[in-house]
């Protein structure tokens, strides 16, 4: 019998994010919480990512072709210049350098990580590669740390308010236990009532007692009207809700398909095109097996 196609093997290939088309561009365009920069050897800004507006508030036209040191706090110029030149000369990456960057409305602390890289020169007459620096600037502290600080501040405020409430309760005057009870403070006592013949024998009516002695509570069973109401009440059936599934083809990595088909790993693991090819291969394999059995 002929060898089975590779797609019909028992071990299905694992899907990897790197198999998607233009996955590197997706990573760069979806990073909006960090700042991606490409600097020349003179620290001029050649490229900026989509996170510029979200981190510093500037537009692309505001910083392109400008020197990166113009957006660094004056006290951090020397620190950045030293690590920048040392990285270009040695070829070693820049590891966790903290500088203050100037935004539209404020100056915030950022963590810089960089790596030098040789790129092709745009000048056709000059074949010498151009040395550039890739910079990733991440705001510090992160948003998770800011949320934690806000939670701690709210906890301290809650504790302070609880102490204030305890002080106010301690200052409040205590009521005398020997003072006569006012009519409004008398508690209603429920007793058996058989005044009306049509009333349920276990019906209770409120009465007011002058002393603190109360009769034993009488437990009443469910009335027929309550049973009928419970039987007539419609049962609410919870609606099943769940998050929408996100599928990806294990062969080509496609995430958008008009229909998801069955593959070697189970239902909805192949896109429409790969699923049709897979079904055709299955059909051809079945015909080949039937032909071999007929010959034998």
Which stretches are low in confidence, meaning pLDDT under 50 for 5 or more residues running? 1-12, 189-197, 199-213
Main β-sheet, spatial strand arrangement: 2-1-5-4-3
State the secondary-structure class.
alpha+beta
Outline, from the CA principal axes? Answer: flat
State the total count of DSSP E strands.
9
Rg (C-alpha, Å):
38 Å
Superfamily at the CATH H level of the domain at 23-144?
Answer: PAS domain
Strand content: 15-25%
**H/E order of the elements?**
HEEHHHEEEHEEHEEH
- Per DSSP, the total helix count is 7
Instruction: Measure the end-to-end span.
Output: 11 Å
State the share of residues found in helices, binned by percent. 25-40%
Largest sheet: 5 strands, antiparallel
The average pLDDT score comes to 75
Topology-level CATH name of the domain at 23-144: Beta-Lactamase
What is the second-level CATH architecture of the domain at 23-144?
Answer: 2-Layer Sandwich
Determine and state the CATH class of the domain at 23-144. Alpha Beta
Keywords:
20% strand, Erythroid Transcription Factor GATA-1, Chain A, zinc-finger, disordered N terminus, flat, PAS-like_dom_sf, 7 helices, five-stranded antiparallel sheet, 31% helix, sequence-specific DNA binding, Beta-Lactamase, Znf_GATA, two-stranded antiparallel ribbon, alpha+beta, 296 residues
Overview of the structural elements:
Residues 36-91 form the PAS domain. The protein has 296 residues and is an alpha+beta fold. It has 7 helices and 9 strands; from the N terminus they run H-E-E-H-H-H-E-E-E-H-E-E-H-E-E-H. Among the domains are: 23-144, Beta-Lactamase (2-Layer Sandwich); 247-295, Erythroid Transcription Factor GATA-1, Chain A (2-Layer Sandwich), CATH 3.30.50. The strands form 3 sheets. A 5-stranded antiparallel beta sheet has the order 2-1-5-4-3, with helices on one face. Strands 6-7 form a two-stranded antiparallel ribbon. A two-stranded antiparallel sheet has the order 8-9. The longest helix is centred in the middle third of the chain and has 29 residues, at 143-171. The protein starts with 22 loop residues before the first helix and ends with a helix. Mean pLDDT is 75; it is low at 1-12, 189-197 and 199-213.
